[in-house]
Amino acid sequence: MKRRNSRQDAIRELVRGKSIRTQHSLVQELLALGFSCTQATVSRDIADMGLRKLPEGIYVLAEDLHLQRMLSEFVVSVLRAENLVVVKCQPGTASGVAAAVDDADLAHALGSVAGNDTVLVVVDDAERAASLQSLIDKLSSTR
């Protein structure tokens, strides 16, 4: 059971960090991380975890679907300064975007503050902030 949980944690990170389009590419990414698994195993994990495919063909976590909708509709740009991620939004939409970021319970995101058209997300370190910036950029550009 421990192996399955750690594999699913790895899948969660891969799907959030990269644009995964096929089960085969997910198997290859897992193999590169040291997980020995088949496409059938990954298929079961996808079903267990509730992964969905966006119309663009990218896998997304079920819990990220609301976040993806908010980001793709309202985000204009994403910038990063060290451990801070700045999300520029359409006027009047930042509080909704910040709520979606908070609700997604993203690992290492400590919290967010919203103004009228800007969301500031504080992340626990710069490397993880870069990953969060990449995730937000990926989810917001799937229009």
Automatic annotation (TrEMBL):
Sample GO molecular function, one term: DNA binding
Keywords, ordered alphabetically: Amino-acid biosynthesis, Arginine biosynthesis, Cytoplasm, DNA-binding, Repressor, Transcription, Transcription regulation
Alphabetical GO biological process terms: L-arginine biosynthetic process; protein complex oligomerization; regulation of arginine biosynthetic process
InterPro entries associated with the record: Arg_repress, Arg_repress_C, Arg_repress_C_sf, Arg_repress_DNA-bd, WH-like_DNA-bd_sf, WH_DNA-bd_sf
All copies of domain Arginine repressor DNA-binding, residue ranges: 3-64
Gene Ontology terms: cellular component: cytoplasm
Domain Arginine repressor C-terminal: 71-136
Pfam families per record: Arg_repressor, Arg_repressor_C
Pathway: Amino-acid biosynthesis; L-arginine biosynthesis [regulation]
Subcellular location: Cytoplasm
Cited HAMAP family: Arg_repressor
Protein family per UniProt: Belongs to the ArgR family.
Function statement: Regulates arginine biosynthesis genes.
PANTHER family xref list: ARGININE REPRESSOR (PTHR34471)
Name this polypeptide is given: Arginine repressor
Gene, per the UniProt record: argR
